[in-house]
Amino acid sequence: MSLQNTTVVVLGGSSGIGLATARAAQAQGAKVIVTGRQAERLANARAVLGAGAQAQVLDANDEAGTRAFFDALPALDHLFITAGELVLDSKLAPATEALHPAMDTRFWGAVYAAKYAAPKVRAGGSITFMSGTAARRPLPGAAVATASCGAVDAFARALAVDLAPIRVNTIQPGYTDTPLFDGLFGAQRDEILAAAGARLPVGRIGRPEEIADAVLFLMKNGFVTGIALVVDGGGLLV
Question: CB burial class (10 A; 0-12, 13-18, 19+) of residue 52?
C-alpha cells in the first residue's frame, strides 16, 4: 500500500517519534496533520514540515477538544497516537493525583482519539497506538506508567476486532533518543542513555526515524492488524 495522497494524522507530532513519523509520511506523499500541547514546539514542527502540513494545539487529555478536532476533519486514512507521560512512582509513594497523568495521557488519550477518529477513517485505513516495551518488561519505579502501556496494548487488540476492517496496531519502542528524557534525566541524560545503549545487542539506543519507519509499515501493510510491534534494538533479549 502507498501513502501517496492519503491523510495522516499524528497526535503528539510536535517532536520526537511523532514528528519523525509525520516527516516520513510526508516524504511518501501523504498530507500530514500534527497536534501537540505546546504552541512553541508545534510551531517548530510546522516549520520543519513546511507549508503543506497542518498543525493544531491539542491536549490528548482533552476529550472535548479531541472530539472537536476530528469533527472538523472531513476524513483521514491513518492515525498515529504518541501521547504519553512517564511518571516515576517508586513503591507508589507519590500522591495518588500525581499518578493520574501516566494513565490519563496514554490510555484515556488513546480512547478519546480512537472514539472520535474511527468514524472518519476511510476504507483501508489504520489506527496505530504507541505503548512501549514496559508492557512486556516492567519499568522499575514506574508501575502506573507500565500499566498504561499494557492497557493500550489490550485496548488495541480489542479494537482490531471491534473496529474491523479498520486495522489497529501498537508500536512498542525501546530506548529512543527523544525529548521525553530531557526532563526525566536532566544533566545526566546523555550519560544514562549511552549506558542504556551499550547494554543493547545493537550497541546504541534508537533514533526517532527508526521507530517512524516501523509505524509506516503498520500503516501501509493491509494484512497487519491486532499486533504489538517491538522496535527496541534487542532490549527484551537482555
Answer: exposed
